């Protein structure tokens, strides 16, 4: 087991992403977004304008000393820090992510806090780590007294949503989604792999990965944020279509119901735009099943067809009155 101050190699990374619409009538520009996400005075906010406006906060740490979630009821105490950050895409979609890495084993005695702080995002168990039980426990959800990554991510979202920049006049109604994910070490010589992705009720998704040890936890978090963003877009547009009464509503009502999708969402679809190159190919598996982009293109085409069907009679009516 690692000596004090020595780097511990993680065998498990766990995280949770919360995604929501920014409650602002106008999308934030790059400068305002950077102001919103300035969580630390000693580190810069990352602002990227290509291929879309993407702003990401520096990481903040939460010290933890508690039990880890386990699927088999085992009581595993761990100490360390959880890393968290926020991201804003096109000034519209806000995300908060919390994650930690864990080594195969930790010390039997608690170390001074300083030794945990020099390894941000690392949580050490007391003794051996029951890797599979903890991975399953995180995906199931934390119980009372257990490390709750969702609560940390939600707390960061709540902090940002209190910012004075926001007028809390969202241009349309939407629901939050949450993605719980785990990444276990891949066998020697094996590359990254997406082993499972599930859609559950109430906006919950889960994802399981296998990653080589040389891929940092932050890169895995970026992949999961990208997936969570595009899943939220799909979920939101599907909900808009379900509530728009297409085919039953008259022309103006249908156009009004679908306009938020056209104005605010359709241009945001850019998978892999901010994913580490070593992990970008994992999107190919999502394109095969459940077929994210295929479903998105079908939705977009349906919206465009319906808008055309509803708009053409209005144009004819306007021309006939001239």
TrEMBL record:
Protein name as it appears in the record: SCO2521 family protein
InterPro entries: SCO2521-like
Lineage start: Bacteria, Bacillati, Actinomycetota, Actinomycetes, Kitasatosporales
Organism superkingdom: Bacteria
């Amino acid at each position: 087991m690692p000596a004090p101050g020595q780097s511990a190699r993680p065998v498990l990374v766990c995280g949770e992403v919360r995604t929501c619409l920014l409650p602002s009538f106008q999308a934030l520009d790059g400068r305002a977004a950077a102001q919103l996400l300035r969580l630390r005075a000693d580190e810069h906010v990352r602002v990227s304008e290509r291929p879309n406006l993407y702003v990401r906060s520096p990481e903040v740490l939460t010290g933890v000393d508690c039990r880890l979630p386990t699927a088999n009821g085992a009581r595993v105490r761990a100490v360390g820090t959880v890393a968290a950050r926020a991201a804003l895409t096109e000034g519209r979609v806000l995300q908060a992510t919390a994650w930690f890495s864990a080594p195969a084993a930790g010390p039997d005695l608690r170390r001074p806090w300083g030794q945990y702080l020099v390894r941000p995002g690392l949580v050490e168990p007391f003794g051996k780590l029951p890797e599979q039980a903890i991975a399953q426990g995180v995906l199931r959800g934390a119980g009372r007294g257990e490390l709750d990554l969702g609560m940390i991510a939600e707390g960061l979202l709540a902090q940002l949503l209190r910012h004075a920049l926001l007028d809390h006049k969202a241009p349309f109604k939407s629901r939050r989604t949450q993605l719980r994910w785990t990444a276990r070490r891949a066998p020697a010589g094996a590359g990254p792999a997406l082993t499972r992705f599930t859609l559950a009720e109430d906006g919950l998704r889960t994802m399981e990965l296998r990653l080589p040890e040389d891929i940092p936890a932050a890169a895995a978090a970026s992949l999961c944020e990208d997936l969570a963003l595009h899943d939220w877009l799909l979920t939101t547009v599907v909900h808009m279509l379900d509530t728009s009464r297409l085919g039953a509503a008259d022309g103006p009502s249908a156009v009004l119901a679908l306009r938020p999708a056209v104005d605010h969402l359709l241009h945001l679809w850019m998978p892999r735009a901010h994913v580490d190159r070593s992990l970008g190919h994992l999107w190919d598996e999502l394109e095969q099943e459940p077929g994210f982009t295929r479903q998105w293109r079908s939705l977009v085409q349906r919206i465009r067809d319906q808008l055309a069907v509803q708009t053409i009679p209005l144009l004819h009516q306007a021309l006939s009155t001239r």
